[in-house]
Write a structure and sequence with these properties.
The chain is α/β, with parallel strands linked by helices. It contains 21 helices and 24 strands.
Amino acid sequence: MIFAIEEINSNQMLLPNISFGYQIFDSCGSTLASMRSSMALINGQELTAEHTCSGKTAVKAIIGESESSSTIVLSRATGPFKIPVISHFATCACLSNRKQFPSFFRTIPSDYYQSRALAQLVKHFGWTWVGAVRSDNDYGNNGMANFVEIAEREGVCIEYSEVVEVIKKGTAKVLVAFLAQGEMDVLLEEIIRQNVTGLQWVGSESWITARYLATERVSKVLGGAVGFTISKSKIPGLKEFLLKEFWEMTFGCRLSSTISSEYEKFCDGSENLSNVSNAFTDVSELRISNNVYKAVYAVAYALQNTIACKTSNSSYSENITCGNKDLMVSSQNVNFTMASGQTVYFDQNGNPMARYELINWQKNGAGETNFITVGHYDASLPSEQQFVMNSMNIIWEGDSYTKPSSVCSERCQPGFRQAVIKRRPVCCFECLRCPSGEISNTTDSAECVKCPLEYWSNENHSTCVLKKVEFLSFEENMVSLTIAVALVFYNFIDTPLVKASNAELSFLLLFSLSLCFLCSLTFIGRPTEWSCMLRHTAFGITFALCMSCILARTIAVVMAFKATVPGSSVPQCSLPLQRISVFCCTLFQVIICTLWLVLAPPMPFKNITHSLDKIIVECDLGSAIGFWAVLVYIGLLSVLCFILAFLARKLPDNFNEAKFITFSILIFCAVWITFIPAYVSSPGKFTVAVEIFAILASSFGLLFCIFTPKCYIILLKPDQNTRKHIMGKTHNKSQ
């Protein structure tokens, strides 16, 4: 401060014919002493060690204080008198309240910005579970409150904000210390005493560049610490100014101008300062000192503007006139550039633009701790560009190049979601697998997303894939046996057994059975509009034709043997009559199927409700009445066949075809009676499989029961394939 004042007084261009004077008061870090000093300044009293001298002094501005609490007391006392207070180190965001502190300004950024910078720093390195300590004063309490608020908004949780015992027991590996230097000294002593190590420290600007802390003893705890501090700068001429002050101490001699000194030897001018480096002459880390320098110049430029009273400047209020000694308004409007290139101005709350350097404690080859700039924070930039890291490597806790991890719960990978643990912070969670049909494709997903209707979750539940389309798809030649039987009958068409079996109806029945086997193929494969309409109608018509043939054969057999009984008047069933009965019975089923197709035909349908992980492509019946009408009609024909065959059970044993028809119809009815509950309860493609099974089982039942005995005689017992053998028992029974 003294250097800046002497520099301004020697500058005839800045304040010509005007010199600054100053008074220095020591508040001793006490709010009470700060109040006493402020009253002395306002009342024009000069405090000395022996007595108080009364007299009016022209106090125009106050530089200070260093602590936020003392500055609050000072600013409240001087505010009503419109005396500008420009602090170089008071960072409490509460001082930006213009209603409470209308005359307060500062050359150090508000903690409003530092809290945000620290929160972004913690988030940038992925530390979501941190501890925190603070000073129990305006600086620590306000700064930590702002940090916690912003950190929680960024998804960072504070495990504790307590004392050393809690720090020692805590699980957080990162500790944010929002402390003044005095409290930091006390905390470090206790941390070292209890041997608390393994913590990654994140510091505030008050101590992160405190050179006196960078000792070997403290570095064992704070090594690798990171934190934001205000930008450093160079002050030309300051080093030379300080050298005069400490000449005697450095070389152990007294200057000729020194009135009294503990050194007897006089300095002879042979001393060399170029190689001297100590705490007093080290001007490489001018941060807070630069703020004092800027604060003094701000007063000078505000005074220059007040005296000059540039009425053309639109930033001045209309009530400002030449000679006005109100520095408060002038201080609000200062805007100048320092010799170092820094621009100094205040916003509407008396704050400068917030710019920070991210400092990392790193040891050099000699084991000394250096403060290395590894990043920057600039609040004037857009939010996504405010925090920028340099390319330089960071040395972390324990002199490690590996960034420490500090999380309450490990991250949830894609396919999982976060589940909050009861009575725990939001950063503590469980990772639960997404349920079937839901996915999460990002890390730390809060919710799982349902897949669209035609999609399903993959094995990892990280993406939606098309559901597997399911339908019955296998191939098999099911008519070969029927064709073989037809060939046998054709080769032996002139034999008595084939003739007695009514060859025309037999071939028609075999043809209808072939169609029954073939219609099952329409149920196989991906359903289409045509296949859906064909499968049910073909099934209904072919089975109606089959049952009509069996019914005609049964009637023919019954009437033939009844007619041969002596004294019977029952006529034989002629071949044209059999053809008409088959045609009429089949025609009625054709009419039912035609009405079904016209009014409500079956159509392909994607069933996505029955199975969650697949799409079942099936045929919608269109009209359930039409489907069941087809089945009921087939059932009616089969019942008629069974009744007639049952009545013919006492026919001669050598040609008891009615008995085999009875067995075949029993199998047919049993299959289709069990089909109904199986069809209703079977899911998806198994519904089609049940229907195919019923078709094949009933068709094979008819084929085997009716034609196997005949093929057995034709192929294996040709001696019984004679008219005499076939009619033998009939003749005996007639006799």
